[in-house]
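Final report, closing paragraph on structural work. Over the funding period we assembled a curated collection of sequence-structure pairs, and we close with a single example.
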Amino acid sequence: MLADKKALTLAVAKRIAAAAEQEAKKNNWNMFIAIVDDGGNLMYLERMDDSQLASQEVSVQKARSALLFKRPTKALEDAVTGGRMVILALANAVPVEGGLPLVAFGQIVGAIGISGATSPQDGIVAKAGADELDKILSGK
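Its predicted structure, as stored:
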C-alpha cells in the first residue's frame, strides 16, 4: 500500500518565509531563511539585506537537522549544554537554536532554518515561520 502524505508547496514555503522575515524586520535582525521539504531538499532560501554570509549554509543545515531529528535544533543545543557531548558526533546534528520541523496534520512536511542573529533570536524568527503554517492550516 502507498501512503497518503501532505507536502509543502512553493506558495506555502514563501508564506512561511514571509512571516519569518516580517518578525526579523520588526526586530531589525538580518537573517537567512531556509525552508526544506520532507526529504531535506531546499525549497526556498531568502537572504535579507546585510545578512552575514556564513548564515546561508547554517540556515539550511539547521532546517535539515530539525527535519532529520524530528525536533527543534534547540533540543539538541539543550542536550549539549546538559553535558551530552555525544550529540556533537552525530551526523547532521546542528545543536544551535533556529531550526524547527514544520508539521501538518501530525506529519512533518518540512522544516525551517534561521541564521543570522543570536541563537534565541533565530529561534524566535523560526517560530514565527512555523506559526504561519498553523495559520494556513486553520484557514487564516
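The radius of gyration is 14 Å. The chain has a mean pLDDT of 97. We thank the funder for supporting this effort.
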